[in-house]
Amino acid sequence: MLSIPIKEFLSWKKKQLSKGGDQQAFAVLIDCICGISTSDLNSLSINSEGNLYLNKNLDFLESVWDDHLFKSHPIQYICEIAFWRNLKLKVTNKVLIPRPETELIVDIVFKIFGKKSQKLFFAELGTGSGAISIALALENPLWDGIATDIDEDVLKIAAENYTNSSKQSNLKFCCGDWWSPLESFKGKFDLAISNPPYIPKDTYERLPKEVKNFEPKIALLGGEDGLKHIREIIQKAPSFLKEKGWLILENHFDQGEKVKKLLLKNKFTSIETVNDFSGIGRFTIGRYK
Ligand SMILES: C[S@@+](CC[C@H](N)C(=O)[O-])C[C@H]1O[C@@H](n2cnc3c(N)ncnc32)[C@H](O)[C@@H]1O
User: What separation in Å is there between the alpha carbon of 41 and the centre of ligand 1?
Assistant: First the structure.
C-alpha cells in the first residue's frame, strides 16, 4: 500500500480532470482500481487532512486515465465495471454500458405497478448487463422475471451480475431472438420491457468514437430507420402479454410518435410517451387492450 497526503491526491485529481473526462468516470476508475468508493472519494474534499492509502501509484492511475481520455476508451470497459442505480455491474465489451437515462424504466414500472406489489410475471427482451431485470427482481422478491438476450456470452454476464448482487432466485435467463425463447409463456406476462437497439443506420455511422469503436454494434443498430427491432417486439407482444399487460420500450429521442403509432396499430391502449430527465420522449408505453 502506498500512503500519500490527501491534499496531494486532491491536487492530482484536479489536474487529471482538467485534461478532460467527467467526475463520474473518474470515480469509476478510483473505485475499481483503488477500491475507494464514490462516497469515500467525495468525502476527501470535506476532510482533507491525513493520508490516503492506495494500492497503485498515481503514475499508473494516470496512464489508465489517459488511455480513457485520449483513446476514447470507456472507463467502464477498462475497469469492467458500471454503476447503475444502486447496482455495481460487470461489463465487458460484449455488453452495452447501461445508461443513466435507462434507470428511469425501473421507476416507470414502479409507477404503474407500485413497489412490492403482489405477484407479477415480467420479461425483459435484450437484457445486456441485466441491469433492468436485476433492479426489478431485487426490489420485488415476489415478482418473477425472465431476461433474454440473443448473445449467450452477454447472458452469462447478466446471470453473473444477478448472482453477485443477490441470493434471490426470482430471475431466470434465456437465450434467443426477441420473443422466441419465451414461446412456452404465451399470454402469461403482466409486463414486458425492452431497451432494444434503436439507432438508425446513418446515425450509427456518426456515433462518437467512444461508442462506435467500443460498444457492441448488435446492441445499438436498429436497421435502416432504427425501428426494425421495436417493430418486431411490438408486433409479437400481443401473443405474450396477458390481457391488460403492459409493454414498456425505450426508443431514440425522435421515435416516440412512430412507436405510438405502431402500438396503436397493434391494438394497444393507454399509449403514452414518457420523458427522460432531459425532457426527451425516451420511453413509450402501452397496454394490450
Ligand atoms: C440497447 S442494448 C440494452 C441492454 C440493456 N437492457 C440496457 O438497457 O442496458 C440491446 C440488447 O439487445 C440485445 N439484442 C440485440 N438483438 C437481439 C435480438 N434479436 N434478440 C434478443 N436480444 C437482442 C443485445 O445483445 C443487447 O444486449
Answer: 33
